[in-house]
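Z., the sequence and structure:
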Amino acid sequence: MFIQTEDIAQNINSKVHKEELYGLPVDTAVLFSDHKGVYGRHIEKHQRKLLAKLSFLAPFLEPGERILHVISGCSPATFVEQLLTGVLLGPLKRSLFAITNRRILHVPTTRGLQHRWSVAQILYADCRYIRLRWATLAVKYKSGRTERFRCIGRSGRNKARALLGNMLLKGRSSPTMEREHLCPRCTKPLIKNYYACPGCSLEFKKKSRATLLSMLIPGGGYFYARHPIMGLIEAIIETIVFLLLIASTAAYFASAPSAPRSITQAIMLCAIILGYEKTVTALFSNKCVEDFIPKQRQVEVLIEQSASRKSSGDPKEPLATNWRSM
């Protein structure tokens, strides 16, 4: 059995070490093996499934850049966000991470891992350290900021830890020295809190509108941020609470001035719950909008502009040769 496994691994290295899958340049010797460098059919099946979700990334990759591993996880969330959402953090912050030989590409997705035309990059040269402990990926940037990506998928976690632990954090740095979003149309870096691409003028959803819709329409912020299921659930909850508030208020005025104390308490409780729900909706729709979601549902990548942006690439390989050793 050991000889067969070794032969399979050697076959992968010699025949399909570097190729394209779904139009993406990959290193199959790394992609289809575990953290010890041993090929696994189930690993190949899982990686192909995730890679198929990222086929749109081809124009974003630079010459000589190859995808080594794909893993699921969640976008960064503050302690308050985690406290308010609990188990809903996963569906709201679902993401895929493509680990390449030059950077990590962070792609926010829907619950079903369908991309939302939002792409961010973490250049290894921008990082002081990258650590994966348990299900949390911690990235310390040279700017001094730290981001934590939680709920990293169990399948392939050891592989990601081995890869990132042996990655050389050097090369071309970005001006911000932090995670930066890329335009899904021209692939150029976007400016934080400026929701229009400086290169191609593609417009993105805005925080102000997300907040306004959260306040005015039940579940409006989630619908605006393209979380329809969460929007529907929130709309039902807000509608029920709002109707209870109206009914309690009507009962209060009908029995005034000797209205029972329970009616007053019911009004206060409904008002608090409704305010809480709208605040949470506004908070999370704003955080989703921070991922630069285009106003258009479909975006056509400008191949010409993307190709002209790319450099010739650094001939040095940032990945250490002993990545398989823990």
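Residues 241 and 272 are 10 Å apart (CA to CA). The radius of gyration is 24 Å.

Let me know what you think.
H.
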